[in-house]
Specification:
The chain is built from four helices and eight strands, in the order βαβαβαβββββα. By secondary structure, the protein is an alpha+beta fold. It has a single domain, classed as ADP-ribosylation fold, CATH 3.20.170. Pfam families: DUF952.
C-alpha cells in the first residue's frame, strides 16, 4: 500500500461522505485532485494553508482509489487523482490544525 495525503476543509469532507465521492475544487478547475506524499505534505500545508483553520488530512490508500493516479511535477513528483476520490479509499481522517505560529506539523496519528 502506498499512502497519499490530501488536505481539505471539514465542510468539503462532510459533503463527500454523503455522496460517497470527494471531488475537490481542483478537479473541476485543473482536472485533478492535488495530493501529497508523507514527505511533501507539511511543505505543502505551510506554503498553501498557513494560518488556516478547519482543515482535515485525508489518509488515502492508493491501491483502493478507483480513479487514475498520476505522479506529476517538475522538481518533486506529486500524486494527482484524475477523477473523483471514492471515500472508501480513505483509511483515516485526521484533524489538521496549525500551531499558534500558523505553521503545521505532521499529526502523530499519521505517523503511527
Amino acid at each position: 500500500m502506498t499512502l497519499i495525503l490530501h488536505i481539505t476543509r471539514c465542510e468539503e469532507w462532510e459533503k463527500a461522505k454523503i455522496s460517497g465521492f470527494y471531488r475537490g475544487d481542483t478537479l473541476d478547475s485543473e482536472g485533478f485532485i492535488h495530493c501529497s506524499t508523507l514527505t511533501q505534505v507539511i511543505k505543502v500545508a505551510n506554503f498553501r494553508f498557513r494560518n488556516q483553520r478547519d482543515l482535515l488530512l485525508l489518509c488515502i490508500d492508493s491501491e483502493k482509489v478507483e480513479a487514475e493516479i498520476r505522479y506529476e511535477g517538475v522538481e518533486d513528483l506529486f500524486p494527482h487523482i484524475y477523477g473523483a476520490l471514492n471515500v472508501d479509499a480513505v483509511l483515516n481522517v485526521v484533524e489538521f490544525a496549525c500551531g499558534e505560529d500558523g505553521f503545521f506539523e505532521l499529526p502523530q496519528a499519521v505517523v503511527d
